[in-house]
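Hi support team,

I've been running sequence recovery on a batch of backbones for a student project. Most finish fine, but this one hangs at about 90% for roughly twenty minutes before it completes. I'm not sure whether the input is malformed or the queue is just slow. I've pasted the structure tokens below so you can try to reproduce it. Let me know if you need the job ID as well.

Thanks,
M.K.
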């Protein structure tokens, strides 16, 4: 059977969005998303070429190999082709490649290490967070069967494009000024998405460029053809991720397998609003669905804690009704959660914390499962491993409980 190697070049540096390749969308880093897309497409092996320890850690955690990139290929001017060729040389054990400086760090199952020459190379860019594995699978099949030498991701485009060779002088590209055909009458045009390029491996090594021989488009859904270059791109992807992840079957990609649950109160159990009465007392709105979810989770014997900065009787009253531990009036949430974890003899890596605002970030950094509600602050979402579909006070806690229970039943 033809073999395939997916290579994901992912440097640590980035100009538009610093540390871009470890930024998270729906709890998954861009590196992790790219690795999972390749794995779900069924490629033989997945490698991440990087100069960065955080990227390497993300790659290994997702089950990919890591190829350490030498300094000469780590700058902003290094081409993607150079990283791909270097990775192929490292795997093949080619003479002249400094393997001590660029070792292959294998994932859990060794599989093919150095000495492995694939039939097909799959170049995946981590900056495209919504890659459909089925599209990669089809493109690999086309190249492996020798139907084409190269198949690249593209979306159909009917845009009327213009260029400005000199200031104030516009020239149409691919159409005439006096003729405006209907969209359905236009010949098909395709725009590269940058998501992936699938190539005959030996042909690529000879050409040393991603386009050679018989080139074909692998058309992808325009809705998923988004590439992250700016903060605005990242914010947009965060906003539409719940919809697209569900469309691509990625919603349940992370099993919430934990031993304990800690939540903030305001903005998680509530919608972060309070009603102030004439006598100065406050009331908040909570979800009965959250209460039922916690009741089911508590029956498993799982330790559960509400941790809040607010010194308000309503917090303790709600915790008492739910029959869970509570610490409120806490300024140092990180210290409090560390103490609670030690007191309950827990592994911090298997504890989940759900937050919504920036004062939750230190606590999120103390656990293995930092979780943000759907309407959390952007800084919290970036610190999260998982972003919920539900907003605080509208079933976010129930969603967490259901996901934990589902993971326990597997």
């Amino acid at each position: 059977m033809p073999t395939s190697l997916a290579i994901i070049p992912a440097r640590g540096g980035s100009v538009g969005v610093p540390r871009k390749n470890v930024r998270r969308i729906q709890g998954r880093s861009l590196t992790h998303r790219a690795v999972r897309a390749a794995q779900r497409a069924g490629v033989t092996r997945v490698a991440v070429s990087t100069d960065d320890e955080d990227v390497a850690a993300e790659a290994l955690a997702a089950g990919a190999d890591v190829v350490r990139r030498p300094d000469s290929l780590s700058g902003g001017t290094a081409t993607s082709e150079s990283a791909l060729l270097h990775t192929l040389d490292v795997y093949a054990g080619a003479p002249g490649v400094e393997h001590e400086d660029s070792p292959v760090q294998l994932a859990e199952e060794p599989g093919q290490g150095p000495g492995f020459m694939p039939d097909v190379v799959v170049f995946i860019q981590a900056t495209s967070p919504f890659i459909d594995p089925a599209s990669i699978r089809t493109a690999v099949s086309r190249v492996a069967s020798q139907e084409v030498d190269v198949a690249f991701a593209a979306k159909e485009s009917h845009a009327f494009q213009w260029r400005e060779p000199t200031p104030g002088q516009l020239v149409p590209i691919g159409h005439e000024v006096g003729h405006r055909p209907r969209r359905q009458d236009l010949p098909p045009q395709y725009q590269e998405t940058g998501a992936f390029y699938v190539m005959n491996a030996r042909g690529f090594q000879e050409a040393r460029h991603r386009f050679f021989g018989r080139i074909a488009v692998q058309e992808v859904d325009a809705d998923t053809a988004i590439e992250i270059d700016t903060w605005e791109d990242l914010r947009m992807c965060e906003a539409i991720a719940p919809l697209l992840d569900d469309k691509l079957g990625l919603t349940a990609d992370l099993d919430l397998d934990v031993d304990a649950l800690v939540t903030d109160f305001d903005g998680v159990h509530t919608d972060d609003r309070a009603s102030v009465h004439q006598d100065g007392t406050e009331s908040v709105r909570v979800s009965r669905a959250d209460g039922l979810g916690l009741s089911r989770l508590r029956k498993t014997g799982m330790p559960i804690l509400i941790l809040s900065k607010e010194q308000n009787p309503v917090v303790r009253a709600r915790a008492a009704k739910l029959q869970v531990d509570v610490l409120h009036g806490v300024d140092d949430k990180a210290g409090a959660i560390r103490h609670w974890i030690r007191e309950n003899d827990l592994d911090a890596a298997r504890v989940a914390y759900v937050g919504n605002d920036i004062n939750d970030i230190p606590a999120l950094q103390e656990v293995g499962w930092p979780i943000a509600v759907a309407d959390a602050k952007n800084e919290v979402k970036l610190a999260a491993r998982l972003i919920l579909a539900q907003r605080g006070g509208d079933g976010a806690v129930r969603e967490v409980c259901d996901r934990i229970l589902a993971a326990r039943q597997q």
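--
Follow-up from support: It reproduced on our side and the slowdown came from queue contention, not your input. The chain has a mean pLDDT of 86. No action needed from you.
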